């Protein structure tokens, strides 16, 4: 059974200093994230952990990790190989894909048509665009069923049994393959850590790299950045001396809260 894990390495904007955000307000290019460390989202890491757990239970599968972006994704592609993935693929592009779910979905669907994956696994949404459209668009292009908010799944070829989180309950479904699955991280699974021997072997592993054109992706410009107000509710105590302020604090606040 061929399984494709599609993920996108995303920079962590929390690593930017405040001066970087302030400098970005002077132009329309937005904050520069080109030097930030990139990693898959929490949903995508949970999806990889669930796939590896299925393999450890004895399910025969061929795992492929596919990422779309620049060379900063190479670290995670090698990481997945160290964990036991059979193949890693990087579709290289320098374009801004934060708000291009249709373009990303088309690349994933084209790869599937050429390599015949039985299941495509993604995360529910990215931490950048947060549109949650990519798995649905992939399923529409392939005419496959799509299941989102999946917290667990097990393979019973030619079926897959999955659990979906809805607004009121957890729904359990048994679905015939092929299918697109969007995993939601629920805090109960964690990505394993490979050993040093596996890391060294993965460093020499071949990664399939293909350059793709993103001329059709519209250029997005940062129009405005505003800093949110972070105010705390407080009462200022006015007094000439520290003793007078302490007396006001006791009289107006502490005394009413002391137990008799």
TrEMBL record:
InterPro entries: ETF_a/b_N, ETF_b, Rossmann-like_a/b/a_fold
Domain Electron transfer flavoprotein alpha/beta-subunit N-terminal per the UniProt entry, residue ranges: 28-212
Gene3D superfamilies, A to Z: HUPs (3.40.50.620)
Tagged with keyword Magnesium: no
Keyword Electron transport: yes
SMART domains in alphabetical order: ETF
Keywords: Electron transport, Transport
PANTHER family: ELECTRON TRANSFER FLAVOPROTEIN BETA-SUBUNIT, ELECTRON TRANSFER FLAVOPROTEIN SUBUNIT BETA
Similarity comment: family membership: Belongs to the ETF beta-subunit/FixA family.
Protein name: Electron transfer flavoprotein subunit beta/FixA family protein
